[in-house]
Amino acid sequence: xxxxxxxxxxxxxxxxxxxxxxxxxxxxxxxxxxxxxxxxxxxxxxxxxxxxxxxxxxxxxxxxxxxx
Length: 68
Known about the structure:
Elements: H1 10-21, H2 26-33, H3 37-55, E1 56-58, E2 64-66
Antiparallel strand pairs: 1-2
Helix pairs in contact: 1-3, 2-3
């Protein structure tokens, strides 16, 4: 999984780790990182978008699969 996350910036990886592994909310993450909750939300959404864009490939049947 760590290899998959290499497409993200360090801050994006940090936000995802804090959100999913440590189960922190955006407000808590913002406080820990010294930024606003809206900045954390933006990093989170950009990270998810980047992962989807990078790892979605079309399979043989025309559907989509995650290639990682």
